[in-house]
Amino acid sequence: MKLVRILIQPFGALRSQCFRELSTQAPRPFKDVPGLAALPIIGSWHRFLPILASVGMQANFFKILSAMRKKYGPIVKWEGFGGRGTMVICFNPKDFDQVYRAEETNPLRPGFVSLEYFREVLHKEKFQGVYGLTTAQGDQWRDFRTKVNPALLKIKMVQLYAPGLEEIAEDSIARLLKMTPKEISQDFYEEATKWSLESVALIALGSRIGCLENNPADHPSQQLIYCARKALDLPFILELMPTLWKDKTKTALFKKILDIYDLQWKVSEEFIDQTKKRIKERGHDIPEEDQSILEKLLAIDEKVAVMMANEMLMAGIDTVAFSLTGILYQLAMNPGAQDKVREEIRQGKSARYLKACLKESLRLAPVVSANLRVTSKDHVVGGYLIPKGVSLVAPNEILSKSEEHYPRATEFLPERWIVEKSDPLYHGNTHPMVTLPFGFGVRSCIGRRIAELELEVFVKKLLDKVRVSWSGPPIQVTTRVMNTYKKPFSFKFEPVN
Ligand code: HEM
């Protein structure tokens, strides 16, 4: 017990500061980075108990990292995190800025081991080296990303989908207005995922897939929503939580995860095949602006096209539904900002204030709490030598909500994104790496423009006709891989003149 206590002795911020000063001479060895060391099999979770005890067992990732910062200082090591090697958390944006920029030539961000196994081992023959953005690394990732970047990231191209998204938003709002308060409280998030899938499917496939009808649980669209959720939740439990299984591939949970990936692939493949058939029947000879992402990519590389459409139907559901819930919550809690957005919409102005609201709500409630890169070489960070192969974490959510980086940091103040430089609120006074809701650099979110457009279109359509309010205790966030909101959803949607 004494030994355990010695091992978890806190290295305070002061001591870390001393190391940083020494670092101008010679970097300290990696073993000296303060934090949680690991034991075989159970990793470092046992050492983690004192931290959990102080923040509570229901703590989310944000609270856990905050507690670690307080205990260990600006740079913290967490060995054996879920059996996935060593993680280093840098609380100084200059530190991770330096590493992320140095890694831009080959940014490594590992996906789930189970998904890698599914694509790269189990179905190696089928995928033939085209493994998708979420799992591929190195040249395979770069080749894929280079092919898909223009179709997904060119703002002008993405804007062309706006009319279709407007129709979807209208249908979705009509459904929301028919829901009872009890249904809203329990099912709001489900509705949000139906809207986000219908929207991303329109862009990926060029047609509606029927999410906004009253479907049974085995309807293909419902199956995609189910699979996307399980494909986040189950690998989190298998791959990141402590386990006594040495070989996790032998577990029933691993088998279940593979079944989920199988089902998701099968259902999305059916939708993709229907689209291909439609394209074949009507011919390719239509203007580029009328083509779905799938159609545009089919002209470049069929395997890449199919995998990208599949990833869109997986990664574009909960991310956008969470962000929609977040911005509606903030606008409900800040009626002044809501009125300003409504005025902007009705006067037909550009969506400057609405965009600022979206940035601000993603600052306060990002989909992912932190960003990550695995080092491909040695770095000197905060005075320590950080070797190759370490997961370097940027805890953006914590930093984004800290007074150290933003004045009135926990308040929803969209103005900070639009005020003049001379205003103390001006966002440019903050280090640009502090708030990164879509990640960083060449490996940042490929769906960013699509997500922003979907959210903008929905909020515009909603606020023009509807007042949003919230009449309950503050919304609660829980973290798996992504942040998610807990029920109940105390939204009220009322028609407004
Ligand atoms: C508001 C909604 C969204 C947020 C906040 C978000 C956030 C992120 C973040 C933080 C990353 C990691 C970036 C990095 O490591 O630097 C990422 C990657 C990714 N996102 Fe999104 N995302 C959203 C919506 C979407 C949508 C709609 C799609 C699909 C159309 C999508 C597809 C992807 C893919 C495929 C990657 C991997 C990119 C790569 O490694 O090259 N995301 N996203």
Automatic annotation (TrEMBL):
Pfam families tied to this protein: p450
Cited PROSITE patterns: CYTOCHROME_P450 (PS00086)
Cofactor: heme
Molecular function terms, GO-annotated: heme binding; iron ion binding; monooxygenase activity; oxidoreductase activity, acting on paired donors, with incorporation or reduction of molecular oxygen
Binding sites annotated in the UniProt record for heme: 445
Keyword Metal-binding: yes
Keywords, alphabetical: Heme, Iron, Metal-binding, Monooxygenase, Oxidoreductase
Family statement: Belongs to the cytochrome P450 family.
Protein name: Cytochrome P450 monooxygenase CYP333A13
Gene source species: Cnaphalocrocis medinalis
Lineage: Eukaryota, Metazoa, Ecdysozoa, Arthropoda, Hexapoda
